[in-house]
Specification:
371 residues; alpha/beta; TIM Barrel; globular
Length: 371
Amino acid sequence: MTEQTLAMPLCRARGVPEIGIWLPVYGGWLRTRDRSRGPDIRGCLAIAQQAEALGFDFLYASENLLNCIHGPKVAVVDAWSLISALAATTSRIGLCAAVKPGFRSPLLVARMIDTLTRIAGRGLAINLVCGWWQDEFDLADVEWLDHAGRYDRADAFLRTLHRLFDPDMERSATRDLLVHTPFHPGTEGEPYRHFGFSGEGLPDIWVSGHSHRATRLTSEWGHCLFLNGMPDAQLAAHIAEVRQMAGRWGRKITVAVNAFVIATEHPEQARERRGRIVQNRNDETISFFRGVMQASGASAWMNLSDEQMVDSNCGLDAGLVGSFAEVRDRLRALAGLGIDRIVCQFDDPMRDVGPFMQHVIHPLKEAMQPE
């Protein structure tokens, strides 16, 4: 397989990770007693506009058909409908949407990517997520597989997606798309090879997961490994593993990490806000999702504490809680570990993203620019 041009390349000051914002498609990121409201679609659009104006590098929309923060009785915004709107209403900021193999076919996703790229006038990224909530699969009439089976399905999905955009790729696919495609009219035995897609249209492919299968899938077919927040030693181990494995294929992999950000002028303010969040956690909701996650067999969700489950994807473990100066230092440390992208969640994005960019990111970029 020839290396593709990434759809959402890293364009960052040296030593500063790309900074993105995780759009609140579930109505917020906290499993707390006062945050059971559903999503605000107009609010998501407004946050996206503000993020672009402030200089964020990308927007991220996760895909769950059931609300994985507040529970299945609460609505959720469809990621691809939202990204479609943002493709038409933003002009520069990167766009990344998650997709679950089985819920959408590779051909459908390829056509969606091709169309949205034309609408946006720029490349997109997709985040492959194998899924962990069986009720979601059952209600969508998608076969629920065990952990290994879900990764087998994801592997077949990515092989086919690559072959759609690049039929002449060197590696053979386990489930070869071309075996069952129709013939050219009047040409015996020659399958269609091009479906109106260009090899340059292959999106930047992120893969979420902490297991060996996720690492292998990223190193062979992806461009970016997307990790939950976790201690530095664990981050370093994942980064080393995926880059060593990708090196066997002659490939280079970027790494993204989720982070819940609380950045304030004084460190005591940030720690107080974190303390209030943890103290106000919704134990009933956390207990419900703990059972769902453990039943999935996904390694990322094993043995999490109640504090880790108060926010989505262990974002507080990334350590971006503190004064503006402390958060700047922490971002430097994450970059030093080999983190290329930070996908930020905020308690109140409309309130918090402006000060974060003004007092953390812009000074950090200015300090890292060569004299």
